[in-house]
Automatic annotation (TrEMBL):
Signal peptide: none annotated. Belongs to the sirtuin family. Class III subfamily. 2 residues (Tyr-73 and Arg-76) present in a large hydrophobic pocket are probably involved in substrate specificity. They are important for desuccinylation activity, but dispensable for deacetylation activity. InterPro entries: DHS-like_NAD/FAD-binding_dom, NAD-dep_sirtuin_deacylases, Sirtuin, Sirtuin_cat_small_dom_sf, Sirtuin_class_III, Ssirtuin_cat_dom. This is NAD-dependent protein deacylase. Binds 1 zinc ion per subunit. Residues 3-252 form the Deacetylase sirtuin-type domain. Gene3D superfamilies: SIR2/SIRT2 'Small Domain, TPP-binding domain. It catalyses: N(6)-succinyl-L-lysyl-[protein] + NAD(+) + H2O = 2''-O-succinyl-ADP-D-ribose + nicotinamide + L-lysyl-[protein]; N(6)-acetyl-L-lysyl-[protein] + NAD(+) + H2O = 2''-O-acetyl-ADP-D-ribose + nicotinamide + L-lysyl-[protein]. NAD(+) binds at Q108, N109, V110, D111, N225, T226, A227, A243. It comes from Comamonas terrigena. Coiled coil: none annotated. It holds the Pfam family SIR2. Transmembrane segments: none annotated.
Amino acid sequence: MPAAEPDHAIEAVRDWIAQSRRLCVLTGAGVSAESGVPTFRDAQTGYWAQFRAEDMASEPGFRAHPARVWHWYQHRRGLVSAVAPNAAHHALAGFAAQHPGRLTLVTQNVDGLHQRAGSPDVVALHGDLFADQWLDACCPQCTPALQAGQLTATEPPACPYCGNLRRPGVVWFGECLPQAALDAAEVAAQGCDLMLVAGTAGVVYPAAGLVLQARDAGARVVIVNTAPTELDRLADAMLQGAATTVLPALLG
Ligand code: BV8
C-alpha cells in the first residue's frame, strides 16, 4: 500500500472542502475494497478468476449462461452480506449528517455499503446488487411473489408458465443507466464547486464522464486513489492513499 499523501496536501483539500458549498462525491469499487469486497480491477478470486466481469455483467452473458451469471451474483450477495461499511463509508455519511444538503454522493457501487453506513439520498448509478427484476416482458403469471423463496444459489428463478427468468437488478454493460439517477448525478456534477473522486479507475462511462462535466462547470476535482487513474489529467489534486485513510482525514 503506497504511503499516505503528505499532510500539506490533505490540509489544502480540507480548506477547499471548508470553502465548498456544493460538494459532489463520486465513488467506485475501491471505496468498498477495505471492507473485503473485491474490486473489478482485481482479478476475481478462485473459480470466478476465469471469467471477465464485463462478460458476466451483461445481458448476452446472462442469456448465454444464466446459471453461471446468477451464481456469480449470489456469490457476491453472500460476500457483501457478510461485510460491513468501512471508515470511508462512515466518513461520507458523517459529513452528510453534519452538513445537511452540502454533499451529493454518487456511487458506481451496487453493494449498498454507503446506504448501510447511513449516507442519505445516495445516487446509485448502477443499481442494487440485492434487487431482482424480470429479464423479459411478463406474462400474467410472472409475479415475483410466485418466485419468493426460490432464490437458489445456482439457478435463476423462472416463471413456470412462460419461462421468463429473474435477473439481478443492476445495470449491465450495454444497458442504459436509470434516467433519474443519471439526471441527478449530472445535476450534482454540473452544479458542484468541488468534486471528490474516490476509489474508481475512471474507465466505465457514462459515470466517469461526470468528472469532466464537473470540471467543465468550473469545479475543482480531487482524486483519492491508491493508484493512477484514467481521470488524473482532470485533477486539481491527487491524494494517493487508501480511502479509509484519506476520506476520514478530509471529511472528519
Ligand atoms: C451505457 C453493475 C448506454 C453490474 C457496472 C462511452 C459512453 C457510454 C458508454 C460507453 C462509453 N464507452 C464505453 C461504453 C460502454 C460501457 C463502458 O463504459 N465500458 C467500459 C468497460 C469501457 N458502458 C456501459 O455499457 C454503460 N451503459 O452507457 O448505456 C449505451 C448502451 C449501449 C452501447 C453504448 C452505450 C453501463 C455501465 C455500467 C456497468 N455496470 N456495475 C455489476 O456490478 O455486476 S460497472 C462496474 O464496473 C462497477 O459498477 C463500476 O462502475 C465498474 C468498476 O469500476 P470501478 O468502480 O472504477 O472499479 P475498478 O475495480 O475498475 O477500480 C477500482 C479502483 O479503486 C482502482 O482505481 C483502484 O486503484 C482503486 N482502489 C483499490 N483499493 C482502494 C482504491 N482506492 C482507494 N482506496 C482503496 N483501498
